[in-house]
């Protein structure tokens, strides 16, 4: 039998297993309940016939009838009414001490009746009792109760009985009800077993176990061959999968499977992701001393998220690749801007020469040499955000036309992922600071006219500095320098620094101004990430 069962398909094995277990449990539970109810029904009938016998024996009419020695129609009518009130009661009979029957519910019995000696105990003064005997109607359950006369002596007895055939009929009725319930429950169990098998098949996406095993082995090979470390945790935060690169990040001998991900990886935001369903991408962290870039993605969608997938990348490798890509793009954008500006300069020089303004052409060429290819390359190396790099190169060209040297501090470092604020806000800040410095130096008659820009972006925050060799800011002007519309350069100005103040306040940053009249000014914008504040 077992070998045949093993040869069946998985679906049939599961179906037969579920149905067999369900059927056994149903039969067992209903059998126990049936046994209890049948016995309870028999006990109820015994209690009924015993109670009726006791009640009839205590009736004054019955006592008077036995004391007088003659049957009484009124007593018979009262006993008939008593019998009619109890459908489960089949016979009530009244006997005197000489076994002369004074009353019987069927009215067919008269004279002396042989009770097989079962009445001797009650006539001898025994208490009420119940026996199983054979009468004219077959096997019966009989309850005996003595009738005590007015003189205190036993004058007869009452027998109340229920036919065993009636009791068996009651048991068959209960059995038929239970059989119907069993049939219905078996049909329901059959449907549930079939539905469970279909649900399991749907959960397995129609695959057989052998196919799932092969698929798992292929996927396991692929995941272990990846360079990224991959951890999968369930709804309780327990790690249920870890590929080989992820295992290599933990100390030797430490098994991540079955461990809480919060203990293995304190920087995880798995619980937050399970609640919100939003992934967390490109988060800087460390694990066992390894600097990593972590991305955590929910497995599934709300409200049916099954867990969290954690992808761990070596930070050095990611940053190296990012530097290469960002540097190439920044260099390309810079070259495009440089080419555009170079053509514009050639056109300006051509215009000076054609109009005979040779000296102006010489001055323009001299100023243009302030922006060298080396400065362009340095800018592209330091500023890896192409929008910011292109802006700064354009400002360099514009400043050079005015005889102003604009350079980027060599220790500057700016990558998009490290910026605290939006790239557009950073472009606005840098553009307004540089334009303000260029306008200041353009109106200055100092021999040295230089601007130095510094952008320092890291995981802790972002610092932007803009230093010029201008005339400095007088104290009265410094107090109102960020007011909207305030400017020392004429009407319709005074918007740039006010916009700078708005962005800094919105991003939670700080502005400091270091200025000295006749020497120059340095603006410093500081933005600190919330977790480092």
TrEMBL record:
Histidine kinase domain boundaries: 337-531
Source species of the chain: Enterocloster hominis (ex Liu et al. 2021)
Name of the protein: histidine kinase
TM spans (from-to): 14-36, 174-192
SMART domains, alphabetized: HATPase_c (SM00387), PAS (SM00091)
Pfam families in UniProt: HATPase_c (PF02518), SPOB_a (PF14689)
Catalysed reactions, as listed in the record: ATP + protein L-histidine = ADP + protein N-phospho-L-histidine
Subcellular location, record wording: Cell membrane
Keyword tags: ATP-binding, Cell membrane, Kinase, Membrane, Nucleotide-binding, Phosphoprotein, Transferase, Transmembrane, Transmembrane helix, Two-component regulatory system
Keyword Nucleotidyltransferase in annotation: no
Membrane topology summary: Multi-pass membrane protein
EC id: 2.7.13.3
């Amino acid at each position: 039998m077992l070998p045949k069962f093993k040869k069946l398909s998985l679906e049939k094995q599961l179906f037969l297993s579920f149905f067999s277990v369900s059927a056994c449990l149903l039969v067992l539970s209903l059998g126990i309940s049936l046994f209890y109810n049948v016995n309870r029904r028999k006990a109820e009938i015994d209690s009924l016939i015993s109670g009726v016998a006791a009640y009839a024996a205590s009736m004054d009419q019955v006592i008077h009838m036995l004391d007088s020695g003659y049957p009484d129609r009124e007593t018979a009518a009262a006993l008939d009414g008593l019998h009619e009130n109890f459908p489960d009661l089949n016979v009530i009979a009244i006997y005197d001490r000489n076994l002369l029957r004074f009353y019987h519910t069927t009215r067919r019995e008269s004279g002396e009746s042989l009770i097989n000696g079962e009445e001797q105990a009650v006539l001898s003064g025994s208490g009420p009792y119940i026996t199983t005997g054979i009468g004219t109607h077959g096997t019966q359950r009989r309850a005996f109760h003595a009738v005590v006369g007015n003189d205190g002596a036993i004058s007869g007895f009452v027998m109340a009985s229920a036919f065993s055939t009636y009791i068996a009929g009651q048991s068959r009725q209960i059995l038929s009800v239970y059989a119907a319930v069993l049939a219905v429950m078996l049909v329901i169990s059959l449907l549930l077993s079939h539905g469970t098998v279909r649900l399991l098949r749907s959960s397995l996406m129609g695959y057989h176990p052998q196919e799932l095993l092969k698929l798992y082995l292929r996927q396991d090979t692929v995941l272990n061959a990846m360079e990224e470390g991959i951890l999968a945790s369930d709804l309780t935060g327990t790690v249920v999968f870890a590929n080989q690169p992820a295992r290599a990040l933990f100390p030797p001998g430490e098994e991540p499977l079955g461990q809480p991900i919060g203990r293995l990886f304190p920087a995880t935001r798995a619980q937050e992701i399970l609640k919100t369903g939003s992934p967390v991408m490109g988060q800087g962290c460390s694990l066992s001393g390894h600097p990593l870039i972590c991305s955590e993605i929910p497995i599934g969608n709300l409200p049916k998220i099954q867990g969290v997938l954690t992808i761990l990348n070596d930070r050095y490798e990611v940053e190296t690749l990012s530097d290469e890509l960002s540097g190439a793009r920044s260099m390309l954008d810079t070259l495009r801007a440089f080419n555009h500006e170079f053509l514009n300069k050639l056109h300006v020089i051509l215009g000076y020469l054609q109009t005979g303004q040779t000296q102006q052409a010489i001055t323009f060429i001299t100023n243009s040499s302030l922006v060298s290819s080396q400065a362009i390359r340095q800018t592209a190396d330091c500023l890896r955000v192409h929008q910011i790099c292109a802006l700064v190169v354009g400002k360099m060209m514009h400043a050079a036309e005015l005889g102003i040297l604009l350079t980027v501090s060599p220790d500057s470092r700016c990558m998009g992922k490290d910026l605290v604020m939006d790239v557009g806000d950073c472009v606005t800040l840098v553009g307004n600071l540089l334009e303000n410095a260029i306008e200041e130096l353009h109106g200055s008659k100092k021999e040295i006219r230089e601007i130095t820009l510094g952008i320092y972006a890291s995981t802790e925050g972002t610092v932007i500095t803009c230093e010029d060799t201008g005339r400095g800011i007088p104290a009265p002007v410094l107090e109102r320098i960020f007011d909207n519309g305030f400017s020392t350069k004429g009407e319709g100005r005074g918007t740039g620094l006010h916009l700078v103040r708005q962005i800094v306040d919105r991003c939670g940053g700080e502005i400091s101004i270091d200025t000295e009249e006749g020497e120059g000014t340095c603006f410093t914008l500081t933005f600190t990430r919330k977790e480092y504040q």
